[in-house]
């Protein structure tokens, strides 16, 4: 469960919020060359300050910057490391009903942490906004190391670039792990005490339709990584990055099935990955997508080990309709068959704007869903 001042907090968010219209306009003008980078930063700063106030007004104790400085929930972080290039691929990610933009991340040298990483700069601004408020925690969300690895083997061109600089996976695991570890420590030294690893790799491996795609790609590569091997590698990449961290740093992970312009990419319950993800990944809390039948049932939660918390993503960010509170309460109690109530929490299933496009709902509808999460938690756990 999320922690606030060593007390259990049974409601939370995943991270991203709908971008304000003026921010979208400013980003477009920046890319067109009509305004400077400094002009854009000032607009981002002002909108993030307003967002944090709204988060607090709507009852949140753990706040984010809404990912307002990012275009993608994951790629912007990857591009911030040394040895990773921003490229355009032949195709975007395939979602049900839509293909995304064609950006990707590709190895261009040995991977390492960049002290000027954009996520570090972003967090420092967020931390300064709340540093004088003892009632608020500032979280930094970053895509998981496994997500980076999966991007680097996403297609033949990415694999070719990877193999040019890394002849074996052992060296890659070391360099990715160190780059992430250095980033997390830099965040910690800037005041961060709550980090969340966003990760779509596990949910992809829950979808049988992706298994054949992974195995087909493995046959074309010297890496020979089929989907059972990828499960083990995801665990290794993530645990390597988060070992030997400060004891007072909370490390969470979020697993969802894709979130782009209100579309989804994968489906299937957590059974195929439950023993590794829930039993062996060294995180404090799992933020899990459970807003539709595509997510399966709660049975895989039986593998959550130790005293780890489970945050049930029961409120969808893909649709504007408000969920029934009674239905949410019923679902929470249904999950207690596998995880005790005191280790459960509730949240939206994902962010509202994992990419700058955003999902198909209004800002008012977004905040109504946040209030529903907070109010439901207070009814269940008070």
Order of helices and strands: EEHHEHEEEEHEEHHHEHHHEHEEHEH
Largest sheet: 6 strands, parallel
Kindly provide the name of the CATH class.
Answer: Alpha Beta
CATH topology: TIM Barrel
Task: Report what the structure shows.
The protein has 382 residues and is of the alpha/beta class. It has a single domain, classed as TIM Barrel, CATH 3.20.20.210. 41% of the residues lie in helices and 16% in strands. It contains 13 helices and 14 strands. It has helices at residues 21-31, 37-57, 75-79, 118-130, 145-152, 156-165, 169-189, 201-204, 208-219, 227-241, 274-280, 325-335, 363-381; strands at residues 3-4, 7-8, 62-63, 82-88, 94-95, 98-99, 103-112, 137-138, 140-143, 194-199, 250-255, 285-289, 309-315, 344-348. The strands form five sheets. A six-stranded parallel sheet has the order 9-10-11-12-13-14. Strands 1-2 form a two-stranded antiparallel ribbon. α1 packs antiparallel against α2 (37-57) and α7 (169-189) runs parallel beside α10. The longest helix has 21 residues, at 37-57. 45% of the residues are buried. The mean pLDDT is 94. It comes from Acetilactobacillus jinshanensis. One of its GO terms (biological process) is methylation. GO terms for molecular function: 5-methyltetrahydropteroyltriglutamate-homocysteine S-methyltransferase activity; zinc ion binding. Keywords: Methyltransferase, Transferase. Residues 280-357 form the Cobalamin-independent methionine synthase MetE C-terminal/archaeal domain.
